[in-house]
Each structure stands twice: as C-alpha cells, then as structure tokens.
Amino acid sequence: MKTRLRELRARDRLNQTELAKLAKVSRQTISLIEREDYIPSLLIAKRLAKIFNEPIEEIFIFEEEEL
Fold first, then answer.
1. CA atoms in the 13 A half-sphere facing the CB of 53
2. What are 2's strand-pairing partners?
3. Looking at the DSSP assignment, which residues form a beta bridge with residue 3?
4. Using an 8 Å Cβ cutoff, are 34 and 24 in contact?
5. CA–CA separation, 67 and 65 (whole Å)
6. Distance of alpha carbon 56 from alpha carbon 33, whole angstroms
7. Which pLDDT does position 26 carry in this prediction?
8. Which DSSP helix (H) or strand (E) runs through 44?
9. What is the mean predicted confidence (pLDDT) over 54-66?
10. What does the pLDDT look like over 1-35, one tens digit per residue?
C-alpha cells in the first residue's frame, strides 16, 4: 500500500505531532504510516480522510496484488 499522507500533511502545513493530535493517534503512528510500515485501521484512515477532506482512496493507494 502506498500513501500520500506526507504530501497531504505538507500541503496543509501540519507536522506529524499536529496531525497525530487531530487524528487521535501517536506521532509514531503517523510516522509509521508515512514510511509505509503500518497499515492503519479503517477508523484511522477515515479520520485522516476527514482531516484532509479527501476520499480514503486518494490517501491510500492499494497495489493490485494486495487486493
């Protein structure tokens, strides 16, 4: 799974700590998601989509072989 989280965070001028507070997760969780070392739960993905006003599919891109 690829993610545009870092790009969107930069667009909205948020640091990892600020985004983590908005998403109700730890800064480490944001870092892991951005490094693509962690696949977030649907709840976290939905929160991030709401924060950035983007569909989940625009933040997280699944490779065909993952589906």
1. 2
2. 61
3. 60
4. no
5. 6
6. 14
7. 98
8. helix 42-52
9. 89
10. 899 999 999 999 999 999 999 999 999 999 999 99
Terminal-to-terminal C-alpha distance of the chain: 10
How many Cα atoms are found within 13 Å in the side-chain-facing hemisphere of 36? 9
Q: Which fold has domain 2-57?
A: 434 Repressor (Amino-terminal Domain) (1.10.260)
pLDDT band at 64 (very low <50, low <70, confident <90, very high): confident
Percentages helix, strand, coil for the chain (3-state, rounded to 5) are 60, 5, 35
Contact 16, 59 (CB under 8 A): no
Please say whether the beta carbons of 46 and 8 come within 8 A: no
